[in-house]
């Protein structure tokens, strides 16, 4: 998050985004923190299972009313284009399945050497690709 972007997000949103990785954010800001948090066995690789577990934890943290769906309100101020991209059925909610489909596609795209795990470099280049898209 740039300083300019942070200043337009309400303080309440900042408080919870500071605690949890945003499931829509592939780690643009929190790259290293997010990577280390996801790598639960500390082998410097985020496996598919670790990645999915991390996404699930982020999802349940953001789903404040626990209805199994994320609204754009629960997400703070998501990029509307990205929100629409993840919202596969266009109903204005992001379900866990929709998020996981998106995240696992990103995971596979980022896994350059096809070992079903992301190194930190692989994750960073995925983030860079996402930002420059
Ligand atoms: Ca690991
Ligand atoms: Ca949906
Ligand atoms: Ca890999």
From TrEMBL:
TM region positions: none
Residue ranges of domain EF-hand in the record: 98-133
One annotated GO molecular function: calcium ion binding
InterPro entries named in the record: EF-hand-dom_pair, EF_Hand_1_Ca_BS, EF_hand_dom
Listed name of the protein: EF-hand domain-containing protein
């Amino acid at each position: 998050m740039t300083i300019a972007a942070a200043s337009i997000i309400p303080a309440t949103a900042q408080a919870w985004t500071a605690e949890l990785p945003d499931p829509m954010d592939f780690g643009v800001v929190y790259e290293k923190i997010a990577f280390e948090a996801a790598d639960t066995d500390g082998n410097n690789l985020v496996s598919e299972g670790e990645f999915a577990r991390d996404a699930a934890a982020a999802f349940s943290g953001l789903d404040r009313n626990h209805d199994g769906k994320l609204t754009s309100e629960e997400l703070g101020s998501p990029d509307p284009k990205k929100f629409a991209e993840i919202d596969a059925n266009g109903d204005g909610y992001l379900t866990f399945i929709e998020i996981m489909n998106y995240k696992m596609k990103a995971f596979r795209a980022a896994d350059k050497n096809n070992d079903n795990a992301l190194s930190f470099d692989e994750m960073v280049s995925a983030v860079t690709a996402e930002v420059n898209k």
